[in-house]
Amino acid sequence: MLILAPMEGLLDFVLRDVLTRIGGVDRCVSEFIRVTNTLLPERTFLRIVPELANGGRTFAGVPVRPQLLGSDPHCLAENAARVAGMGCDGVDLNFGCPAKQVNRHGGGSVLLQDPEVLYQIVRAVRAAVPAHQVVSAKMRLGFNDDSTAEACALALEAGGASEIVVHARTKADAYRPPAYWHRIADIKAKVKTPLVANGEIWNVQDALNARAESGCFDLMLGRGIVAYPGLGHAIQAHDAGLHAPTTHMAWGAVAQQIPVFWQLVASRVSPRHQAGRLKQWLNFLRRHYPEAEVSYTQVRLLSDPADVAHWLLRL
């Protein structure tokens, strides 16, 4: 299984829609929905996960699992029950966000310092979500170091998590390479819950290395598939025994999706941030495509959405 990662400020509804139209992923997890001492209204969940109005699936039909972030077991359980009732295959819990502001308020990876809290949160959410729906969790190897990695995974398992994604870095590592995939194998030796490997998977060889070192076949793809939207297809093609040259996604196929991306941005993002969103994606794409470098250079100084729309006519 290949899962599209949640990434605050990057992999939101817009890119989920476009990347799942391109294909190569089996499931998505939404960017986190912050839960702080209140039962959120359905409109909040719909704003972050509009796929809930489409049976919990993207336009292309790929399931999207809402992700909650918080530290209060009771409040998280209440919100998990509400979003589960809106139509999705399950609920994911965020124990991996490294952002200082999130950690300062007791959410994300800071919770990895206390496995007992992880257990209490997962147990409460599992009890609140109907049995036929999944409760999964995403964690890092730890906060300042990886000494609690196994204990945290065991706590998530004991609480009732039925799947654990492990980002193979600590909070202190942030997004700096390398990813320590071998530490996922250490966790796998301790828990029976299915694990998914995540972190620093930019190409097919990275995917194969991650699988070999982690012992996990299932992968979560983040920045790598943003930079190369054909990555999921390429991994699937390799698994099917096809040769890499026949599976490369040409720039033309990606460029066809840029107007779709812009249309979604124009409909959901405030005008002052619209151009920035396009530049952000092109900035990732130029890691893989020389043509994206040209496009990025052309739009880099544009800020008016009308100017961007005019540029798209020449793409």
Blueprint of the fold:
Layout: E1 2-4, H1 13-22, E2 27-34, H2 42-48, E3 64-69, H3 73-84, E4 90-95, H4 100-104, H5 115-128, E5 134-140, H6 149-159, E6 163-167, H7 181-188, E7 195-198, H8 204-214, E8 219-221, H9 223-227, H10 231-239, H11 251-255, H12 258-268, H13 271-285, H14 290-299, H15 305-312
Parallel strand pairs: 1-2, 1-8, 2-3, 3-4, 4-5, 5-6, 6-7, 7-8
Helix pairs in contact: 1-12, 3-5, 5-6, 7-8, 12-13, 13-14
Describe this structure in words.
This protein has 315 residues and is of the alpha/beta class. The chain folds into two domains: 2-246, Aldolase class I (TIM Barrel); 251-312, Bacteriocin As-48, Chain A, CATH 1.20.225.30. It is built from 15 helices and eight strands. The chain has helices at 13-22, 42-48, 73-84, 100-104, 115-128, 149-159, 181-188, 204-214, 223-227, 231-239, 251-255, 258-268, 271-285, 290-299, 305-312, and strands at 2-4, 27-34, 64-69, 90-95, 134-140, 163-167, 195-198, 219-221. It has an eight-stranded parallel beta barrel, surrounded by six helices. Helix 1 packs antiparallel against helix 12 (258-268), helix 3 packs parallel to helix 5 (115-128) and helix 7 (181-188) runs parallel beside helix 8. The longest helix has 15 residues, at 271-285. It starts with a strand and ends with a helix.
